[in-house]
Design goal:
6 helices; single chain; about 85% helix; mainly alpha; about 170 residues
């Protein structure tokens, strides 16, 4: 069995376990959001792409939270104005999704705003609670995966140093 083949599943399992255990230890209600962030970051071709996706995920989550807060605050009691403004925001986000540099952040911003608005039921208090949970658990998932990735890179470097030393002598 190739050593490269088992490394990624081990990274993902470690990061998933770490993110869920930390979320549960902190008493957060939706630890699956942290786990989902880990899985999305892991489903990429390279480590650099994983980190970029994590960064865009956090940026998009912040943007989605801000969009939800602004819409609920300004248009929570005006359904027609809410739909018109949100439709415009949806159109902009969908247009920006094709941007190769940061289209993923726009996608996440749109999805997170939608999730927060729907789960918050246009109530300011519920919206805040859902937004806070979504934001902190997404950040936790990104940090856990990045930490495990860095840890594995350190172990890989040590392994290579020892292997080079053994081959040399």
């Amino acid at each position: 069995m190739s050593t490269r083949r088992w490394v990624m599943p081990l990274k993902v399992a470690t990061a998933l376990t770490l993110s869920i255990v930390i979320a549960l230890a902190l008493g957060w209600n939706k630890p699956y959001w942290a786990a989902f962030a880990v899985i999305v970051m892991a489903a990429t071709e390279t480590n650099g792409h994983s980190l970029k996706k994590g960064r865009h995920r956090i940026i998009g989550t912040f943007a989605g939270v801000i969009i939800a807060f602004v819409l609920i605050d300004l248009f929570g009691q005006q359904p027609l104005a809410f739909l018109l403004v949100y439709s415009l925001i949806i159109a902009v986000c969908i247009y920006q999704q094709t941007n190769p540099k940061n289209g993923y952040a726009w996608t996440i911003g749109l999805m997170v705003s939608c999730v927060i608005i729907v789960m918050g039921k246009l109530s300011a208090e519920q919206t805040f609670t859902i937004a806070a949970l979504r934001l902190q658990e997404t950040i936790l998932g990104v940090i856990c995966f990045s930490f495990v990735l860095a840890l594995f890179l350190v172990f890989l470097a040590l392994y290579l140093v020892v292997l080079c030393y053994l081959i040399r002598y």
